Amino acid sequence: MKNFTSVKDVEDPVALVQKALALKANPFNPDFARGKKVGLIFLNPSLRTRLSSQIAVQNLGAEAIVLDIGKDGWALEFEDGVKMNGSKAEHIKEAAGVMGQYFDVLGVRTFPELKDRELDYSEQLLNAFIKYSGLPVVSLESATLHPLQSLADWMTIAEHWDKKERPKVVLTWAPHVKALPQAVPNSFVEWMKAAPVDLTITHPEGYELAGQFAESVPVEYNQARALEGADFVYVKNWSSYHQYGQILNQDESWSFGSEQLALTNNAKVMHCLPVRRGLVIKDEILDGPNAIHLQQAKNRIYSAQAVFAELLG
Ligand code: SN0
Questions:
Q1: Does ligand 1 come within 6 angstroms of the Cβ of 276?
Q2: Per-residue pLDDT tens over the stretch 57-92
Q3: Which of 180, 182, 279, 281 is the pocket-test mutation for ligand 1 (most atoms within 8 Å of CB)?
Q4: Which residue, among 112, 152, 144, 140, has the nearest Cα to 234 in the 3D structure?
Q5: How many domains does the chain have?
Q6: Do residues 96 and 196 share a domain?
């Protein structure tokens, strides 16, 4: 594995899940990467990713250095060949080039702007860090994907499923007040297509995900029908891909509550967090026995640890 930006970077995703589960059982190996340094660069807010990545790196005996570059760094220029006479003080060529001198592995978090679809889906920022740092780069959520989250999600499903047949996994859209990225759903779909599960996506019309991720996955526009017999339900809001970055509706009948849960096979309910209580998922679910969102969050440590171990090893 050279970088970790997508399931496509992983030769054997099943083996990586197994490795993450093994690390969970036995996390401390302070000699594994002693003396190595990992830069964790945040252009956007983070709670779980930031904390779990640091714990993961520490568990491997390496040191994590966190830079909230949006707040504490120079404003970065990403365009090539411009005269830098505006507000951007440093070019990514130098900023990432310097990080290449300091670190062994780099993690980068960058959200999409949700204005220019081509630009966001080109992953300009993440790719610039890869190109100019010369380091192995781990996506800590990019414009279009969140692979560390998806790996943790797969681990969590595996921990709750010991039957031979494939579980029915449903990804359901839920309402939100803000336009959110498609990164988490794109990524979940991409990883679940590689997992031994049957995946169905449900959302109101207009919220179809990009074909490159969702192709070959059944979409059911009727949420109640989609939830029938579900073993796992992944609840997430996203903004429209086709009417890029738009909120098309905020239909609260799609909020996930006990009415929805009753349609499932007593499903485990998942969310990547942060979750808007009462809007995306009702309190009765988040505070009830079917919610496994905190377990997903815990598994973020070991998904990150498995990935950093691959790249530091
Ligand atoms: C991000 C997203 O991609 O949906 C991060 C998820 C890991 N979520 C948000 O930005 C939520 C912000 C909000 O105001 O609820």
A1: yes
A2: 999 999 999 999 988 989 999 999 999 999 999 999
A3: 180
A4: 152
A5: 2
A6: no
